[in-house]
Design a protein that fits this description.
The chain contains five helices and four strands. By secondary structure, it is mainly alpha-helical. A two-stranded parallel sheet has the order 1-2.
């Protein structure tokens, strides 16, 4: 497994229950702002479903992944709703409320 994939997995594990991040947010936090597609691939081959909460990563407009690796957009939506994530439209997360801001304990971005 690549170092980049391992960074992605650690970053995604830091997204708390009730929050989401975009693929681009994760790529920027991993130090590779132009690598959102690679983030998607890393999450598609997530080796630890249930430990790495890949369902908490959405597209930049808040929409869900139609090819969500563990059951499709319906499963992803149900998982997010069970965590308290709110939606603007049927399959678009309210990013203004639920977007996670990647910061360290001292307030600096990671």
């Amino acid at each position: 497994m690549s170092d980049f994939f391992n960074r992605v997995y650690e970053i995604v594990k830091s997204i708390p229950v009730g929050k989401v991040a975009t693929y681009g947010d994760v790529a920027r936090a991993a130090g590779a702002p132009r690598s959102s597609r690679q983030v998607g691939w890393a999450l598609h081959v997530n080796p630890m479903q249930g430990v790495i909460p890949c369902h908490r990563v959405v597209f930049r407009d808040g929409s869900l992944a139609s090819g969500f690796a563990f059951g499709g957009a319906g499963v992803q939506k149900a998982m997010l709703e069970s965590e308290g994530v709110t939606f603007l439209q049927e399959d678009k997360v309210d990013l203004s409320v639920c977007r996670f801001d990647f910061q360290t304990a001292d307030g600096e971005e990671i």
